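for the writeup, i need someone to sanity check this before i put it in the appendix. the sequnce is what the collaborator sent (i think, or maybe the updated version? ugh). structure was predicted straight from it, no edits. if anything looks off just tell me and ill rerun, i have time this weekend
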Amino acid sequence: MPANAPPLAGAFAAAWNRYRLDVLAALILFAAAALAAGRVWRFPFDDEIFTMAPNVPAQFRASGWNLARFYLEGGDLHPPLTFLFFSSLYKLGVGEAAMHCCSIAMTALALALWQLLALALITERGAAPICAVGRLITILLFGLSPFAIGLGDAIRWHPQFALCVALFICLYLAADRSTARLASAIPLGLAMSINLIAPLVILPFAIYRYLLEREWRASFDITFWLLFALFALPGFYTAASVVPELFAGSWSDTFGHSPFGAVAVDIFGLIGGNAVGLGEAWLISPAVAIAALAVGRQIEWRRPANPTHLLLLMLGAMVPAALVGFAEARAFFYLAPVLAVVLSIFLAGSGASSRTLLLAVCALLPGLVAIGELRGGTHPFKRNAAIPFGEIIDFITGNENGDSLIVSTDPVVPWELRKRADLHLCVSYFFQEEACLAQPQRYRSLFIVSGYSNHSRNDRAMQGFAARVAEITRGRDKIATIRVGRDEDAALKTRLTGVPLDEFILTVALYR
């Protein structure tokens, strides 16, 4: 084998020949777990709506190029590829469930690639086949990945980014042809054009290649980075537009958290799949400890070019991101299968001892807890993931009696109600639909859906909302109120964040 051959050349193909039924079993388990958690056929969350139907100024809606220009010029923190992809599907009439399935397929392919890589890394360490218990542990770790279950069907950038990262790593570490290894620059470049978090993959890769592998071949490296730059161009353009705004203090909600709090949120979010809430953190604490132990055990000081070190560098990159206040656990969705690889090597490569089985049970617990929490728990990691929108819609449709106005601080309610052409409703997210609000006294019924929102941290915006509600409801009687969506961690979250949160996530009030 040539000296410059990928470190896992041959082992990846051997893993596919020997363990492809294991990969299939993990994918079937993942699909079953996602459906059991209520994924695919569900109400969207706020960011999914803004991905399908981007909330951009009117002048940018005329064409796909105008929409791309909005994102390229810093209209949002994200590059345009994901928005162009899903908004195009939406305009073509593709339904939400179909788009969820598209994301599930991308997540499943990413999981399959990472599982094969894990099996290749384990077999590379010894000639003996992996024992049956080890294979079962690997199947369960990838099939019950809590993050993949909770966010794998998202109509957002996360599944696309995770698939690009998986393709890049597998092509670089395991491709058996130099042209295929060179082509790994393409998914890496696309990852940059999907989300600006890509440097947390690019920098670890550069450290691994040039400091640990000590690889520098001018013909390969120059071509690699030129190819990467070509496909990363939209991302670079967006970054050039966004970075000045970051230094000016924009996007403070994303980067304005305390380092300690951000580290805790990101680590528990990664282990708990962005689903297990603070009140149930004790259930996944053993998994956090096992993950830390597994990471420590994979460091080989005498073998710096060990391919596992690239994965450890990727996991480690989230720490400095958190230390600057980046508390967006779901942004690290792509690391969920990376962590599963590290855990697989640690557990599946340790034989079938009782100690290994105990550690495996603790490592698998977050996935089981996440399924229960996503299905209808009261300790949500993300509050708007626990809102029973069906109850709200049933309350409104059951009580409207002719022309009705609905004003909501949550975008999902207007999104769903606008689909009901059979009802005489005028629906507004906050007070964006001025046509609905020109003469509020003409409506027979007025519904105010209020509570936690993306603007809850903005006291001025929420005070303005309350004042406008008081204005349009003046002279009316409040005849019914329902409170929906329980978050039993609300008091604790209030103390930690300073944002006043009610135990009930949304309140619906009916005025006549």
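The beta strands are 404-408, 425-429, 445-451, 478-486, 504-511. The mean pLDDT is 88.
thx in advance!!
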